[in-house]
Amino acid sequence: MSGPTPILKPPALVEGDTIGIIAPASPLPDPAYLARGIQFWRSLGYRVRTGAHISKAAGYLAGSDAGRLADLHQMFRDPEVKAITCLRGGYGTLRLLADLDYNLIRCHPKILVGYSDITALHLALNKMTGLVTFHGPMLYPELGSEDLPPYTRENLCRALTVASPLGSIPPAPGLPQPVTINPGQAEGIVTGGNLSLVAATLGTPFEIDTRAKILFLEEVDEAPYRIDRMLTQLKLAGKLEAAAGIVFGICTRCGETGSNPALLEVIAGHLTPSGIPCFYGLPAGHLAIQATLPLGIRARLDAAACTLTYLEAAVAPSSCRQLAR
User: Fold this and answer.
1) pLDDT band at 1, cuts 50/70/90?
2) What value, to the nearest 5°, has the Cα angle with vertex 63 and ends 84 and 125?
3) Domain LD-carboxypeptidase C-terminal, which positions (predicted)?
4) Which of 132, 65, 136, 134 is nearest to 105 (CA)?
């Protein structure tokens, strides 16, 4: 049996770099988000290049699988593009995994940012190539909004440009206080993302590996019984007990209050008996105010203090770019 895939860090962004925008999942509900998202990156001193198929739509998909896949491959192939950000989530990324050119991506490591349905790409790229990716804001609904919170912008920019350990994810203004489920500390590589997509990888070549890792989970618009079902699926697959620690982001509109049982009761029911260090309420997920979380590098979880602290850099110094050609 082969060992774990070596960690592959993309080079850090520097001013003047080109950002590629792709749509691997669903189309935009409002094209104004694309224009505003492009202006967001330009206002920070970056150039922007959009995928050839980015404005396509085929029902709930942003065009055909072949077109969406071609845009992703072209952005990794293009030597001028230094980072790739996703238009939005929705649905469709899982459909691309079997046909991705993982050798191309391995030979051209670049920053990839997105969340929600993009979790499928995070898990596949980390498992098949070792590439560190970033669970962070997309054009819809964050970067293309008319009022992007400073917390979201500052955390995104720092994660993509600083070639040193990020340290602790800072508390976010206006969010509820996090809640300890099981106290304790754990260290490990951070993996995970959207709970629905994590569960969807089970039984596939891209199945999440949680062994001795920090498992991050978040969700949106799911009733507590559906959260229960997906956590039960992960438990039956041995994914919860294998983790060194578990941290939940914010599960938005998932019955936090007034449900029977409530969301935290469901989560605690699965995790309290295990004794695995765990807390709920990291400022990440389907939120206007959200941190950018590197996936694929080591961090320390302190469930009593409700902190996640990154112990290594997520990006390589920009001087390492010649190695990514």
Assistant:
1) very low
2) 35
3) 187-301
4) 132
- pLDDT at 323 (0 to 100): 45
Give per-residue pLDDT as tens, 22-41: 999 999 999 999 999 999 99
Q: Are strands 179-182 and 185-194 parallel, antiparallel or unpaired?
A: unpaired
Is the Cβ–Cβ distance between 133 and 296 less than 8 Å?
Answer: yes
Mean pLDDT of the chain: 95
* Cα dihedral 173/177/181/185 (nearest 10): 50
Q: Which domains does the chain have, with CATH numbers?
A: 18-163 (3.40.50.10740), 167-310 (3.50.30.60)
E strand spans, the chain? 18-22, 47-50, 81-86, 111-114, 133-135, 167-168, 179-182, 185-194, 214-220, 245-252, 278-285, 293-295, 298-302, 307-310
Catalytic residue positions?
A: 116, 218, 286
> How much is the pLDDT for 325?
38
Say if CB 73 and CB 101 are below 8 A apart.
Answer: yes
Name the percent of the chain lying above pLDDT 70: 95
